[in-house]
Amino acid sequence: MLGPLDYVFALLSLIAEVYLVVCLCVSRNRLRYISLNIYMLAAVGVTIAQDAAWHHFGLRSPIYAYVYYYTDALLTISLFFVIMSFYHQVFQQMGAGKYVRWGSVLLLSATAFLSYLIVRRMPAYQVKTQFVVEMSQNLYFVGVVLTYLLWGAVITLRETRTRLIQLILALGIFFSADAAGYALYNLFPGLETNFLKWIPPVMGTFLPLAWAYTFTRIPEEARLATARVATRAAVQQMAAHQHS
Amino acid sequence: MIAALICVISIAALLQFFVSYSRSVIAAYQKSELSEQVREVAGIDGERVTSEQFGQLVQLVRLCPQKNDDQSDLAVVRVYYRMMGWLGVMARSIAPAIYKWAEDERISCTYFAAVALDRRIAYSRALLAQQMSDQ
Lengths: 244, 135
Hints:
The structure holds two protein chains of two kinds.
Chain A: H1 4-26, H2 34-57, H3 62-90, H4 97-119, H5 124-156, H6 162-187, H7 199-217, H8 226-229, H9 231-243
Chain B: H1 2-30, H2 36-42, H3 54-63, H4 71-91, H5 96-134
Helix pairs in contact in B: 1-4, 2-5, 3-5, 4-5
């Protein structure tokens, strides 16, 4: 049975996604963020497809589960192209973007292969459902690793573009919360009904909302000292307190 | 085993990303100076705000007409302020350096709320002036 909160999250995420697509289409920088725009268009399609499956077949039906997990996996893979475009922006001046792209493709292929190896030994009736949960957990974790490396590059190269920094950090929150949620589901399946079921809708709403906010509020030319926001700066502050 | 490892690493990364995200939101407000008016309204004496004033400032922000562009910032900073509060309570006796850092972060959150209030007061005044000129 669906509650009012389910509808609120579904509606909010859809509105934010459509807003972001329109916002990016009319923006001067539409080519710079083309992969993000394609991802958002795909997200709108997936939200509608999932809602349609939800209403036609019910929340507990296997068809809805298949539609949910497989479209989610495809959407996560398309999000990797957004990460790659961020890498491209960060490494643009160094000309190292193509090495990063190949590295990401290799990492993605290795994840899919490893996930398959893990579930290959399971009974046949469990393979399809267990595979998608395992695959989602691993895909989100690859996203965490890629975003973390990207954030490390942003700090090391002293990237100052506020918009890019906030887009990357919101993506990091999205990936790490979802990866932790799927991992917790694998460890403690009983938590799903009370707590873990809220992580995907909350994060699915947070990401388009945070990005919509960034594109609306933060101008392209805004700059921010990366050292002020990095946790390394926080650790240095703590060390200073320790000595004082 | 793999799931446990992924869980621990992801939660650590989540905390780090969230702290950096909140600091990036707060940093954008740190450049603004507080007006005399907001100091008077909020009862701020001297140069610095105190972390305890955060709740009072947020309540005052809520009383002002919404500007629609600081709602999500405010939500993020409120979560961050609470998180720093818990960290401060836990670290107070065992790690004073962490406690002091958390306190500094809470002061930054309070300054953010004061700037948000300042902007909303300026917005309300502009709205009022516009209404007066329309009549």
